[in-house]
Amino acid sequence: MDTLKAMLILGKVIDSGNMSSVGRELGMSNSAVSQHIKQLEKHYSMKLINRTTRHISPTSAGQILWQSAREISLILTKTQQNLTALKTEFSGVVTISLPSASIESPSIKRFLLQMNEQYPQIDIHLLPDDNVADLYKDNIDIALRATEPSGNLIARFLTQWQLCICASPTYLAKNPVNHLGDLVQGTWIHFNNKIFDNAFATMGLGKFSANKVIHCPIISSAKSLALEGFGLTLQLYGDIEHYVENGELSVVLPNGSLPTYNIYAVTAHRNQSAKINAVLSVLKQVFK
Predict the structure, then answer these.
(1) What is the pLDDT of residues 152-195, one digit of tens each?
(2) Please, what are the domains in the chain?
(3) Strands (E), the chain
(4) Where do the HTH lysR-type domain residues begin and end (predicted)?
């Protein structure tokens, strides 16, 4: 027996005082309505209603269940209203995890400006994190990733960015890089073994190796050190585009065969609330 359903039916019967009207409202026969109440009485081993040919009234036990049924009905109604609002209202907080270096990218700045113009009631919480965030555990709405997501996550393609070697003009003036052999002689600001090994292998240099290495696990900090002239590093072009255009960073060996990365907006579920769909739409626009 569905106890909750039977309680709600009992509540409607006591409210209306008429089984026939409740049956018509719910699309049930009178006998089906009566059967639900009988099962409920059997479940609690108590008589719940007093019934005459003209009147239905609750017993003391029925009064208790009737009050509980009214409270449950109000909760269900409020829940439905909240869920409906979630589907239609463009307001609230949306949490986005993204690589630390992307915080200053032109794409993210355009995204924030456009969100403020189009959806001022949506508050964006940016969480810079160079690790792969757990969308379920960390309560994250959207993750921007440069890798193909695994498992049941839903990935929406945004764009493709080239990985590039960069350094400040000051560093390169003292340590020019004219061919691949110069790379291993330089000072490198290193943040991830897999990315650096893959880049060197793609260029035919084997595993990553350098004359001097500064280890810095945070990608944005590696970029900052490169801007200050401490050495070479790897960055996605979309994250350093404005520094290159301003002349603060230079791309080294731009014709080299470094890998490209697809950038995705990843969510835990395909169906999303109105506010998250709005954010995903703006992300697609600005990265496109």
Answers:
(1) 889 999 999 999 999 999 999 999 999 999 999 999 999 999 99
(2) 3-88 (1.10.10.10), 92-156+273-287 (3.40.190.10), 161-261 (3.40.190.10)
(3) 49-51, 56-58, 92-98, 122-128, 142-145, 154-167, 187-190, 212-215, 233-236, 250-252, 260-267
(4) 1-59
